[in-house]
Predict the 3D structure of the following.
Amino acid sequence: MSRGRDARLIPLPPTDVEIPDKLYFRIGEVSELTRTKAFVLRYWETEFSSLKPVKSKSGHRLYRRKDVELIFQIRRLLYEKGFTIEGARRHLASDSKNHAEQKHLFQSPPNLKEFKAIRHELQTILTILSRKC
């Protein structure tokens, strides 16, 4: 009997898996969707701080859609790209940092005063350039 990574991994089909439109998924559903054993999912919760399923009153793990998407990403990094857990953790942290840096660019509404000032500066530059030619 094979031990190690292959024993924990059920190969994914070549096409992308569609995640059902639900609020919460139980660990068995996530295990089937991601083709990852339940004990591996529980272990990943200890290794990846961003993977935090909520617990029901009875103590069952309830994964949200973002958790399932993260599991697919972790699985791809570890099993397809050959990352170590530490490497995958760093990769995910840098991705979230880049996303956070770019997110602020689109959150604030455009400031009309700033646009007018930029427009004025550009018109001034255009005037200077047209005089030199």
About this structure: The beta strands are 25-26, 54-55, 61-63. The CA atoms of residues 48 and 75 lie 12 Å apart. The radius of gyration is 24 Å.
